[in-house]
Amino acid sequence: MRKLSFLLAGALASVNLFAQAVPPPHTNLKVGDMAPDFTLNATTGGKVTLSEFRGKSNVVLAFFPAAFTGG
Q1: DSSP symbol at 49
Q2: pLDDT for 10-48, tens place per residue?
Q3: What is d(CA 29, CA 33) in angstroms, rounded to the nearest whole number?
Q4: Rounded to 10 degrees, what is the CA torsion of 16, 20, 21, 23?
Q5: Are the C-beta atoms of residues 19 and 11 closer than 8 Å to each other?
Q6: 3-state SS of the chain: helix, strand, coil percent to 5?
Q7: pTM higher than the cut 0.85
Q8: Exposure of 48 by Cβ count < 10 A (0-12 exposed, 13-18 middle, 19+ buried)?
Q9: Is pLDDT of 58 > 90?
Q10: What pLDDT band is residue 70 in, cutting at 50, 70 and 90?
Q11: What is the pLDDT of residue 10?
Q12: Other C-beta atoms lying within 10 Å of the C-beta of residue 50
């Protein structure tokens, strides 16, 4: 039983390490470049694209993973 516990713990640790080793997607953006268009789910249930806000003076994009988490 103890050997099985160590085997499962090792397997879980190795999966976690491999998941973190995936490199982020490569982009050629530099500071000051225009952001590419993207689409996000709105809290109201619809979709919002960045291109809808091009030309507006002030746009704030806020992300928080879950309510009441301080993120």
Answers
A1: E
A2: 888 887 777 766 677 777 888 888 888 899 888 788 999
A3: 6
A4: 150
A5: no
A6: 30, 10, 60
A7: no
A8: middle
A9: no
A10: low
A11: 86
A12: 15
pLDDT exceeds 60 at position 71 = no
The Cα–Cα gap between 71 and 65 comes to: 7
Residues in the chain: 71
pLDDT at 69 over 70: no
Task: Please count the CA atoms within 13 angstroms of the CA of 36 that sit on its side-chain side.
Answer: 5
Give the pair of three-digit tokens for residue 8.
Answer: 């499962």
- The structure tokens listed for 4 are 């099985």
Rounded to the nearest 5°, which phi and psi values hold at 21?
A: -80, -5
Terminal-to-terminal C-alpha distance of the chain: 40
